[in-house]
Amino acid sequence: MNTLLDKIRSDFPILQQESFGKPLAYFDNAATTQKPAMVIDAIDQYYREANSNVHRGVHRMSQMATRAYEGARTKVASFLNASSSAEIIFTRGTTEAINLVASSFGEAFIHEGDEVIVSALEHHSNIVPWQQLCFKKKAVLRVIPVFDNGELDIDALKSLFNSKTRILAVNHISNALGTINPVREIIRMAHENGVPVLLDGAQGLSHGPVDVQEMGCDFYAFSAHKMYGPMGIGGLYGKKEWLDKMPPYQYGGEMISKVTFENTTFNELPYKFEAGTPNVADAIGLGVAIDYLQGIGWDFVRQQEADLLAYGTEKISAIPGVRIIGTAAQKASIISFVMDKIHFYDAGSIIDQMGVAVRTGNHCTQPLMDRLGILGTIRASFSFYNTREEIDRLVESVVKVKELFD
Ligand code: PLP
Questions:
Q1: What's domain 3-30+297-405's superfamily in CATH?
Q2: Each residue of 123-171: pLDDT tens digit?
Q3: Which ligand 1 atom is nearest residue 223's CA?
Q4: What is the residue extent of each domain of the chain?
Q5: Which of 116, 180, 287, 391 is the most exposed place for a label (fewest CB within 10 A)?
Q6: Cβ < 6 Å from ligand 1: which residues?
Q7: Rounded Cα–Cα distance for residues 137 and 337 (Å)
Q8: Which residue is catalytic, options 364, 391, 395, 398?
Q9: Cβ-contact 125, 202 below 8 angstroms
Q10: Which architecture characterizes domain 41-294 according to CATH?
Q11: Any catalytic annotation for residue 364?
Q12: Radius of gyration over every alpha carbon of the chain, rounded to an integer in angstroms
């Protein structure tokens, strides 16, 4: 190990533990990433020193909490290069951000006979809200097909647009296969057809820089816990021109401007979409996770993850009876694979007992698994804090599974 990597690993208290008497090798980063001590400490410090409700208090601690909460919003806006922090709405995460758009945009702009496009690569979070909206509005859900290698069929997308298409929702990076989708091309095609685009960025923010203005997306949904921040917080970037036209998603305190029994006027952006007491501590934690990532720098993250992906692909594909699912030309550091005649749950349990944490199952992408003709995969998703030595241990444990079953 090099010293920088040692130093980075020591920032993550959870990585120091053992699992079944062996050093933990954590390869479930696409499900959730681990948290550096500075994120944990920031949350702890907030509750010890500044816990207070935001926006409505004149007292000192309330003002501290408000400054920290709004400071986190400003950090997110600049991390995504949004044109203003009014375009950043805090949510519980990606799922809530997508539900917000499906519900509010859907309420205003989707009517009977209209069409919504998603892709065959989506997580359930970017299928079910649109599907249920389509049921409610008697609209039609269209699906961009996927090739066997995990790449979207972009030519087929061309023929899905028509005058009834109202929105296209697609993931930036596939959690199940690691495919990095050609989102700029998709956005350009959609905009040529007058269709706004929501990117599910749950996997998008941890692997490299995201510039929403340069990409041109209309909405970008994300979760802090997948980018080294806490669970229970995330957000939605939305272009102001859309957010201004969309009705509130939930009603209550904070999101109002004036309430009488006869009527209510709503607050300005972004508060119009943030009803109730927000998750201040975790928003602060998200801001600190951004500081942490920026401290490490994207060059290191990308170089390390590209090395682990190349090394892991070579080693795993060399094991007889193992097949990698998802071989797109552009991939993030996620390797999904199946083993001949061995169920992924059996394999995952044995691998776990060797101190290696992988994900098994359908990864909340049942339609994709159906399309690929499999029930699920074993998925190893790498972070910049993982090492080649840990991948060697994964390979050893997969070989051990084969030996046990042979
Ligand atoms: N979309 C993708 C691509 C994901 O990987 C996930 C989580 O795995 C989600 C959406 C849902 O994220 P969350 O559960 O944080 O809302």
A1: Aspartate Aminotransferase, domain 1 (3.90.1150.10)
A2: 999 999 999 999 999 999 999 999 999 999 999 999 999 999 999 999 9
A3: 15
A4: 3-30+297-405, 41-294
A5: 180
A6: 31, 93-95, 123, 125-126, 171, 175, 200, 202-203, 223
A7: 39
A8: 364
A9: yes
A10: 3-Layer(aba) Sandwich (3.40)
A11: yes
A12: 22
